[in-house]
Amino acid sequence: MSAPSIVILTGAGISAESGLGTFRDEGGLWAQHRIEDVATPEGFARNPQLVVDFYNARRAQAADANPNAAHMALARLQAEHAGSVTLVTQNVDDLHEKGGSVDVIHMHGALNSALCATCEHRWPAPLAMSVGQDCPYCTGPTARPDIVWFGEIPYHMERIERALANADVFVAIGTSGNVYPAAGFVQMARHVGAETIEINLEPGENVGLFDDVRAGKASETVPNWVAEVLAG
Ligand code: APR
What are the pLDDT digits (tens) for 113-135? Predict the structure, then answer.
């Protein structure tokens, strides 16, 4: 019997214990900022300085943050599990990579990347981006944070759907199940008969779709789950 293929989806909750605020928890980012203003193309067109400042602040915070035991446990799983492990994250921080994970699929973009709105060239973002920054490729003054905003199509969807179609196990960690298409992955995994597990501080919006629900802090629950998988 070959080792199971595992697809993991992480959300803001996995980085909460590293000091990075989540979006929808009490006092979260969306309690402090209007989505329309800082996370839509329309908001960027209306007030680019507000948007650039928002992501500059998050980039600086993420640069000072360290991975926690949950990030490191997933890196261990990737390194030691005999079957395939596909790690998809909705997070734009680089704590999975800092924790030792490789080939992390950032479906909502990354704080460390800048994108040209004209030619779609990407390059490493400076710690502080500026409005009207030039693209190093087409020289257009149209640099923007390389973040997937509401109303835009997430990245790497074909690759994610392929992994889900071949999954034996699907695990959602630290995500509230509010935002699609990510919140629909559990349904896609169920469709192919995969075992589905939710690991979260509180039950997510789509908790009823999971076979196994584990409540608790990611830094405790994720290492326990990884140890279980590796023990076979
Ligand atoms: N351990 C485990 N889970 C936690 C922890 C923790 N220490 N702290 C919080 N959580 C859980 C919360 O219970 C909540 O269900 O993490 C979840 C965070 O939910 P959201 O703030 O909604 O974040 P997320 O699901 O990642 O948001 C999805 O929405 O705003 C957009 O693009 C943004 O990628 C983001 C997407």
Answer: 999 999 999 999 999 999 989 99
